[in-house]
Amino acid sequence: MIRFNDMNEKRKRNSQIQQSIIKIQTPLIKEALKELCSGDIVSISGTIYTARDAAHKRMFALINSGNPLPFDIENQIIYYVGPCPPAPGEVIGPAGPTTSGRMDAYAPALIRLGLTGMIGKGSRTPDVIKAMKEYGAVYFGATGGAASLIAKKIKSSTLVAFEDLGAEAIRKLEVEDFPAIVLIDSDGNNLYETR
Question: By CB neighbour count within 10 A (0-12 exposed, 13-18 middle, 19+ buried), where does 109 fall?
Fold first, then answer.
């Protein structure tokens, strides 16, 4: 635990942390993602999309049948989340990350089509990391257990596709200062292996 001798020391430390947060505005273009390194703390603003395993399975089927995806995936970020229903007056309910490994069978195909960012929790398979390195993508981690706090960073939520999947439907989210950390960068540097 860090102990501070006075409030000025604490304020100085907090200021240093704030200055080290990298602001990201979507869409996440390849030139911008190449600047990100494993371990970087980021704040994401703009449009991101939600999709969990059931939606990924359907998108994979669309790809394999030569049909278009429900949204243009190029330079987009997918957040692996199945948000809870919103309380009255709220945009979205608690929206914490789900385990990313559930999407690993489908992620390389989406990365090949231009997906540049994924947000979730947990490690990724070598096939996903290989696709990230080859085509240019990053994997962000969101804090598990902070679903209500994350929901406050979501300013709007619009259903895009697969309404029958309920919480697992694809949604378009507008986020402001969504907190995350780069877990795996586009060079394959992996925070799970280096720290």
Answer: middle
Upper half-sphere CA count for residue 53 (Cβ side, 13 Å)? 8
Render pLDDT for 79-120 as a digit per residue (tens, 0 to 9).
Answer: 999 888 888 988 998 888 989 999 999 999 999 999 999 999
Catalytic position from the list 56, 58, 124, 171: 56
Q: What is the domain partition of the chain in residue ranges?
A: 26-187
Please state whether beta strands 170-184 and 154-161 pair in parallel, antiparallel, or not at all (unpaired).
antiparallel
26-187 CATH: 3.20.130.10
Global confidence as pTM: 0.88
Q: In whole angstroms, what is the distance from residue 12 CA to residue 60 CA? A: 48
Instruction: Return the CA Rg of the chain.
Output: 17
What burial letters (b/e) apply to 115-127, b meaning 16+ CB within 10 Å? bbbbbbbbbbeee
| 56 catalytic residue (yes or no) | yes
Q: CA 150, CA 97: separation in Å to the nearest integer?
A: 9
Q: Please write down the HEC assignment for all residues of 102-148.
A: HHCCCHHHHHHCCCCEEEEECCCCHHHHHHHHHHCCEEEECCCCCHH
Strand-pairing partners, residue 24, are 44
Distance CA 21, CA 104 (A): 28
Measured at the alpha carbon of residue 20, what is the angle toward residues 100 and 135, in degrees to the nearest 5?
A: 40
